[in-house]
Amino acid sequence: MDFETLHLFQEVAHRLSFAAVAEERGVNPSSVSRAIGQLEKQLGARLFQRTTRRMALTEAGVNFLQRASIIVEEMEAACEDLRVDSAGPTGTLRLSASVAFGEHVLLPLVDKFRHSFPNMRLDLMLSDDNVDLVAEGVDLAIRLAAGLRGDLVATRLIDTHYRVCASPEYLAAAPPLETPQDLSEHRCVLFTMPAFRSEWTFRDNYGGEEIVAIDGDLAISSALSLRSAVLAGAGPALLVDWLVDRDIAEGQLVDLFPDHAVTATTFDTAAWLIYPSRAYLPLKVRATIDFLRANVRRSQ
């Protein structure tokens, strides 16, 4: 039994597919199957239950994975530490984020990231689905939420805030918008998440809160498309600050209620950096976390 076999077993255990692991490695699926079969023979235990439709870890496989993962992580740590002095962070960093956050916040930082870490490869996975970090082999993810639960390590990247915005063109032809309650006279552009579609909560500078019922005849599931619709004059919308602050500064959008905090859920929201819970955090992940903390804040 060698380190490479343990690493292969770990990949198969996470993917539960010989074909998926083989495709990622660029080898024939039969070679992966043979290697796992030889490992099972060496151990004298079946690690996977296989049928024509699915694969699952056996109880012995689950127990062996826990032990093997520790060994693999320690070996990777030892190898990486030997490379640090000469090469700095190395390897492929798989980073997951929403489409809007990726396009609007991360992509402008890619060139600086490449110059900062010339020996790393960045695999940027942009999706509005919350991917399974372990199953998809994701090293680091950015999630937008009030808080996170589950078997993950999470650290706050930036606080997020919301603005009610509209274009100058829309405001020139629309009824007055002087107080949050005036929104009842407007057809808002809505985000399709249920919590965002019926009411928004406003908090003034004195801490007073009021809930405002909102309505509209246009709902959009994409934050980027929602912003585009508002820029095109479709009406007022609730948009996150990192997506529209530049538009507001350039006069393309108007922050309708700058003296109010506003939310559809809770006032304490953030962009979180999350990664699988494990004892050893690779240098490439630590370096990327430090890079994002320094540069995402500056870009806001």
Describe this structure in words.
There is one protein chain. With 300 residues, the protein is of the alpha+beta class. 40% of the residues lie in helices and 24% in strands. It contains ten helices and 15 strands. The chain has a five-stranded mixed β-sheet with strand order 4-3-5-15-6. The radius of gyration is 24 Å and the shape is elongated.
Summary tags:
single chain; 300 residues; alpha+beta; five-stranded mixed sheet; three-stranded antiparallel sheet
Structural class: alpha+beta
Indicate the mean pLDDT. 88
Number of helices: 10
Rg estimate, integer Å: 24 Å
How does the overall form come out from the CA principal axes? elongated
Spans of at least 5 consecutive residues whose pLDDT stays below 50 are none
What is the multimeric organization of the chains shown? single chain
Helix content: 40-55%
How much of the sequence is in beta strands? 15-25%
> What is the strand arrangement across the widest sheet?
4-3-5-15-6
The N- to C-terminal Cα distance equals 50 Å
